[in-house]
C-alpha cells in the first residue's frame, strides 16, 4: 500500500467538542467523521483498525467452536412483546414504523431474534450445545451519546448466544468463552482484566465484564497483584481481617470541640486514621417492617459500600437518618456519633474490620467529645451484626488469599453472562430431551464492543504526539518513509524494495511516498500511531543504513537493512 | 471443518410461500430464515456463501484502487433535504424518529452521506480522483418484498462513489469499474452480461447494468454472439435492414373473412409471417399539441417497442386509439387496418424493417379484407416517418455489426452510473482547482447487490436435486463423506487425512462425519450444492480407491487418492 494512493486526512487542531483523548485523536487522525449525534462514518484509516479488531474476534470465536450467523438489524415488535421488552427496554430501543404501519426496532441486542432463530432450527438435545455468534451493526438510542465511538448510538458489536441442555454444560461453555475473551484481548495487545460483574460468583447467573485498563476508564476495578481475581470496586469483597487484638488502653473521653471527622480526630490525637471508627446513621426496617435506626461502623480510613450494606436484612431500601432522627436516638450531632450508650435502642452493624479492632476511637454521642481506648465487650456490647460493608482499598489482601489488591480504572469492552432459561421460557422454545420430553434449553450470551475497542485501545495507548497502536490492530505495522521521493530514484527503489520484503515477511507495511517534508510526515505517522517507522533517505543509502524507530522509543537508530526488518517482525 | 460440529438444517419440503427456485432452495438448504417480510437471518451455511461473495467483491474493488470506508445505516433527514430526496425518494425510504424527535432514514443508498463525507475530506483537486466503497447493510421498504433475498428489504450491498476533477477522468474510472465488475463476476464463476442501461450510449450520463443470466430472470436481454454488445431488449437497437427489394407482385385485395392477425393471414396465404405488416393505431399530438392519429407499422413477426415509439416527436405520451377513433380515421375494425387510403389524413410511422419491405401484406381498411403484393411508392406514398420502433428478436444482426443477437433473461446484480455533478452541486461540495478556484467535482457511483448475487447464482446454477455452486462461492468446495464413521476407525482416519491434505492444497473442504446413511448424506450434500464430493468407505479403502463425483456429473468415479484430490483442485 502506498499512502499517495490512500486517503489520509489528519489535522493538528484538537476538536473542541471531543472530551476524551481517544475521541480527540480519532478525529485528529481522521479515523472517523461525525454524521449525526452518536453516528460516525469510519474513514479508510479508521476502518483498517476496526477490521483488524473484527478479524481477531472472528478467528478466536471460530477457533472456540462458535458458529457465525448474520441476523437482521430490523426486528419485529411481536418478538419483543413475547419477552415483554418492547415496553421494558426503555428509550434506548429505537422504534420504527414501516410503510404498512407495522412496528419494528433497530436491534440494540439480539436475544429475541436468536431465540426465534433457534426455536426454528433446534428441535432435539442432539443439536446442543451450539453457540451462534455474529459481528453486526447495532443501534442504541442513548440520551447522551458522547466520547465518539466510545458511547455511540450506531456501533459494531460481536454478540454470541449459546444453547445448552443443562446448567453444567452452560458453565462449561461460559468458561470456554471466558478463556476465549482472554485470548482475544491478549491477541489485540491490550492490558485488560476480567472482573466479576455480579456477586453470585459461583453458579447461578454468573457474569463477568472484561475491561481494558486505562486511567480514563469510567469504572474503578480492584485486582489482585498475585492472582486473576478482579472485580468492580463496588462489588469486590474485603478480605476477612485477622483476630481482634487484646485491649491495652483504658477507655477515656477526649475533648474534640471542632473535630467532626475521623481525619481531624486522628490528627488531634496523633494516631493513625485506621484507629478511628466512622459511625454512619441510617434508617432500615425491623422484621415487622417498622422503621429501625441503624448505626453502621467502618474504620476511619474506609468507606461504607452502599451495595453491600443494602444486602443486609432490613436494609434493602435503607436511607440516611435525618438530624432529628439522629438526635432522638443518639442525643448528639453528626460528627460526634458512636455506638456507646445510645439514648434509645439501636442496631449496631460493624464492618468486619471494625469488629476486629481494639483500643479504638468513636464519637461520644455528646457534641464536642469522642471516646478513645474503646474495646468491644469491655466497653460496649459486641455488635449486633458483623459483615463486609466497606469498599476495598489499595493494599487490601486479595479475598482469594493470593497477593494484595490494586485499584485501576477500566473501560468495559466485553461481557459474558449466563442467561439461564429466561428467554427460552418467555418465547416457548423447547427441544426434546433424551427421554423425548420437551425441555427448555438454558442460554449464555457473550458480547464484545468491537468499535468501542478501537477507542479503548487508544485510551490505553497514546502520548502527546498521538496514538500508539499495538501491532495487532495498527492500521499498518510499519511505515516506510521516503525522504524526498521526487529526488534520487535509487531512494524510491530502495524504499519499494524494502516494502516488498516487509510484506513478504508477513508485515502489513505502508509506503509514505507523499513527498511531505520529514517533520510533517513523521508527525502524521506518529499521530496515526504506526508502531514502527523506517526512514529511507539518500544519506542513509550512502551510509548503508536505515533509520528505525519504534513509536514508544525516544531515539531513532541507524540499522542495517536486515536488522531494521527484524525489529519490525519482532513486533 | 467437520459437519458434526457445524449447524446444518435441511428440509425436504418445498416451502409453500417461496415462488422462485432460489428462494425455495435457500430455505430447503437452510441458508436463510425469515424474520419479517423481506428481512432474513443468514444461517451459518448461508453466511459462508455471502462472505465468499463479499470477499471477492472487496478484493477486486481494492485491487482496482477503490478505498474502503464504512458509512452509517442511520442518516439524518437534513442531508436528504439538501438534495430534495427526503420527499422525492418515495415510500422505499424508511423514515425513523429518534427519542429526541429528530428524523432519520435507514439508508437505502449513500449518495448524500458520501458527498457529505467528501465535502469534509476533500478540499483540493490534488486529492482527486478518489473512489470510496463500502460493503454495508441497506434497507428499502419495498411494497412487495418477495423471492427471499432476491428482493429483500434489508440487504447487503457494495456501493462505491468516485469523485473527479472532470468528465474525462470520470469516464476513465467508469471504464475501470466496468472492467472490475467483469473481473468480479468472472471470479464468482457466474455467466453474466453488462448491458447498456440508458440509450445515451456514449458520453453524457452513461450507465450499464450487470446481469447474471438465468431463465428465471426478470429482465430480457439482447446480446451479441459475436461481441460484448448487450442491452435490455427494450432498449436494444435493431440493426438497420438491407436495401428495399424491387416490386415483383401486383397489388391485389384478398378475402380474409375471419383472419384478424398477421399469423392467421400469413397461414391463409401460405407466406412467411415476415411478409406481413402489423398496423398499430395510436393517438399522439401534432406540433400545435392537438390529438393526432398515428399508424405505427412493424413487421408481422416483430413487436412494437413502446419506449422507442415514445421517443418520436409527438408520441412522448401516446396512447392506443379507441375503436371509435379507428373507425373515424380508417373506416374499419381492428384486425383489418392498413396504411393504404385512409378515410382521413393520418401519420404513417414505419419501422425501418417495414420501410425496406417489398410485396408485403397489409389490412385493407375494410372489414374482412387484406391487400397483398403492396409496394411503397407504387401503391402508397412513402411513410411519413421511418424509425426503429420494434423490439429486437433472436437472430437479428447485432447493431454493432458483429455477430447476431441472442435473447437471454437476466437478474440485475450490478449497476455502474456516471452521476456527473448532480449531488455535489445540490450539496454545495467544491474543491479548489489548479487555478485556486472553487470547482464542483463530478461523481460516479457503482453498486453491487452482494446478498442478491447469492440468489442469482442459484437461479443460474441448480437442478432437481438442489443448488450447484460455482467453486468460488460454494460454502465448501468439497465434501469428504465418511460412510459409517462409527465403524472401522481406519475409515475415519483416512477421511481426516484426506481432509487435511485437501486443506493443505488450499481447498475449502468439509468432513461429513455426521454418520447419516449414505442416501440421506448425499442428498444433503447435493441440496446444499457442494461442487465436489469424495466418499471414503471401508470397501473403497480395501480397493485403494476413493469415490469422486462432481455435482454436475451423472456418474461417480473410483479414483486413486491423488487423482481424486487433483479433480477438486482443478475446480
TrEMBL record, chains A, B:
Question: What Pfam families does the database record attribute to this sequence?
Answer: HGTP_anticodon (PF03129), tRNA-synt_2b (PF00587), tRNA_edit (PF04073)
Quickly give the catalysed reaction: tRNA(Pro) + L-proline + ATP = L-prolyl-tRNA(Pro) + AMP + diphosphate
Enumerate the InterPro entries for this protein: aa-tRNA-synt_IIb (IPR002314), aa-tRNA-synth_II (IPR006195), aa-tRNA-synth_II/BPL/LPL (IPR045864), Anticodon-bd (IPR004154), Anticodon-bd_dom_sf (IPR036621), Pro-tRNA-ligase_IIa (IPR002316), Pro-tRNA-synth_IIa_bac-type (IPR004500), Pro-tRNA-Synthase_IIa_type1 (IPR023717)
Q: What is its main location?
A: cytoplasm
Q: Where in the cell is it found?
A: Cytoplasm
Domain of life where this protein originates: Bacteria
Q: Transmembrane region positions?
A: none
User: What is this enzyme's EC?
Assistant: 6.1.1.15
Kindly indicate whether the keyword Protein biosynthesis belongs to this entry.
yes
GO molecular-function term, one example from the UniProt record: ligase activity
Q: Which HAMAP family match?
A: Pro_tRNA_synth_type1
Domain comment from the record reads as follows: Consists of three domains: the N-terminal catalytic domain, the editing domain and the C-terminal anticodon-binding domain.
Q: Which family does it belong to?
A: Belongs to the class-II aminoacyl-tRNA synthetase family. ProS type 1 subfamily.
- Which NCBIfam families does the record associate with it? PRK09194.1, proS_fam_II
Function as written in the Swiss-Prot or TrEMBL entry: Catalyzes the attachment of proline to tRNA(Pro) in a two-step reaction: proline is first activated by ATP to form Pro-AMP and then transferred to the acceptor end of tRNA(Pro). As ProRS can inadvertently accommodate and process non-cognate amino acids such as alanine and cysteine, to avoid such errors it has two additional distinct editing activities against alanine. One activity is designated as 'pretransfer' editing and involves the tRNA(Pro)-independent hydrolysis of activated Ala-AMP.
Q: What is this protein called?
A: Proline--tRNA ligase
Q: Which gene encodes it?
A: proS
Amino acid at each position: 500500500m502506498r499512502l499517495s494512493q490512500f486517503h489520509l486526512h489528519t489535522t493538528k487542531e484538537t476538536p473542541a467538542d471531543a472530551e476524551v483523548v481517544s475521541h480527540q485523536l480519532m478525529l485528529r487522525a481522521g479515523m472517523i467523521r461525525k454524521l449525526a449525534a452518536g453516528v460516525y462514518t469510519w474513514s479508510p484509516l479508521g476502518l483498517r483498525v476496526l477490521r483488524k479488531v473484527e478479524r481477531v474476534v472472528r478467528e478466536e470465536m471460530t477457533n472456540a467452536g462458535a458458529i457465525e450467523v448474520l441476523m437482521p438489524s430490523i426486528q419485529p415488535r411481536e418478538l419483543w412483546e413475547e419477552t415483554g421488552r418492547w415496553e421494558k427496554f426503555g428509550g434506548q430501543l429505537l422504534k420504527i414504523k414501516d410503510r404498512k404501519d407495522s412496528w419494528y426496532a433497530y436491534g440494540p441486542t439480539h436475544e429475541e431474534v436468536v431465540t426465534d432463530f433457534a426455536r426454528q432450527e433446534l428441535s432435539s438435545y442432539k443439536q446442543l450445545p451450539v453457540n451462534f455468534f455474529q459481528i453486526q451493526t447495532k443501534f442504541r438510542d442513548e440520551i447522551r451519546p458522547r466520547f465518539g465511538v466510545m458511547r455511540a448510538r450506531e456501533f459494531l458489536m460481536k454478540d454470541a448466544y449459546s444453547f445448552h441442555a443443562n446448567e453444567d454444560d452452560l458453565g462449561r461453555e461460559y468458561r470456554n468463552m471466558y478463556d476465549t475473551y482472554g485470548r482475544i484481548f491478549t491477541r489485540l495487545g491490550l492490558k485488560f482484566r476480567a472482573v466479576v460483574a455480579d456477586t453470585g460468583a459461583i453458579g447461578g447467573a454468573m457474569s463477568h465484564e472484561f475491561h481494558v485498563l486505562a486511567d480514563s476508564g469510567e469504572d474503578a476495578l480492584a485486582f489482585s497483584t498475585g492472582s486473576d481475581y478482579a472485580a468492580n470496586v463496588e462489588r469486590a469483597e474485603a478480605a476477612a481481617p485477622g483476630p481482634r487484638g487484646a485491649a491495652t488502653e483504658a477507655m477515656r473521653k477526649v475533648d474534640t470541640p471542632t473535630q467532626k471527622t475521623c481525619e481531624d480526630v486522628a490528627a488531634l490525637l496523633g494516631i493513625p486514621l485506621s484507629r478511628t471508627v466512622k459511625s454512619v446513621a441510617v434508617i432500615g426496617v425491623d422484621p415487622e417492617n417498622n422503621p429501625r435506626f441503624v448505626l453502621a461502623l467502618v474504620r476511619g480510613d474506609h468507606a461504607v459500600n452502599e451495595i453491600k450494606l443494602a444486602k443486609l436484612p432490613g436494609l434493602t431500601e435503607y436511607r440516611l437518618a435525618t438530624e432529628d432522627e439522629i438526635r432522638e436516638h443518639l442525643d448528639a450531632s453528626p460528627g460526634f456519633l458512636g455506638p456507646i450508650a445510645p439514648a434509645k435502642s439501636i442496631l449496631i452493624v460493624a464492618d468486619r474490620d471494625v469488629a476486629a479492632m481494639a483500643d479504638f476511637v468513636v464519637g461520644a454521642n455528646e457534641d464536642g467529645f469522642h471516646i478513645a481506648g474503646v474495646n468491644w465487650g469491655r466497653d460496649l456490647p459486641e455488635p449486633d451484626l458483623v459483615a463486609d460493608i466497606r469498599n476495598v482499598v489499595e493494599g487490601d489482601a486479595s479475598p482469594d488469599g493470593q497477593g494484595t489488591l490494586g485499584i485501576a480504572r477500566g473501560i468495559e469492552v466485553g461481557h459474558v453472562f449466563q442467561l439461564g432459561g429466561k428467554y427460552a421460557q418467555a418465547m416457548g422454545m423447547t427441544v426434546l430431551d433424551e427421554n423425548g420430553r420437551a425441555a427448555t434449553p438454558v442460554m449464555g450470551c457473550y458480547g464484545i464492543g468491537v468499535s468501542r475497542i478501537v477507542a479503548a485501545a487508544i485510551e490505553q495507548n497514546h502520548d502527546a504526539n498521538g496514538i500508539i497502536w499495538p501491532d495487532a490492530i495498527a492500521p499498518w505495522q510499519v511505515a516506510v518513509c521516503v525522504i524526498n521521493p521526487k529526488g534520487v530514484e535509487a531512494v524510491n527503489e530502495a524504499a519499494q524494495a524494502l516494502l516488498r520484503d516487509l510484506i513478504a515477511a508477513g508485515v502489513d507495511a505502508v509506503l509514505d511516498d507523499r513527498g511531505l517534508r520529514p517533520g510533517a510526515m513523521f508527525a502524521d505517522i506518529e499521530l496515526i500511531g504506526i508502531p514502527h517507522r523506517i526512514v529511507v533517505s539518500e544519506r542513509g543509502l550512502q551510509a548503508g543504513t536505515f533509520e528505525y524507530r519504534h513509536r514508544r522509543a525516544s531515539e531513532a537508530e541507524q540499522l542495517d537493512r536486515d536488522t531494521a526488518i527484524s525489529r519490525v517482525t519482532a513486533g
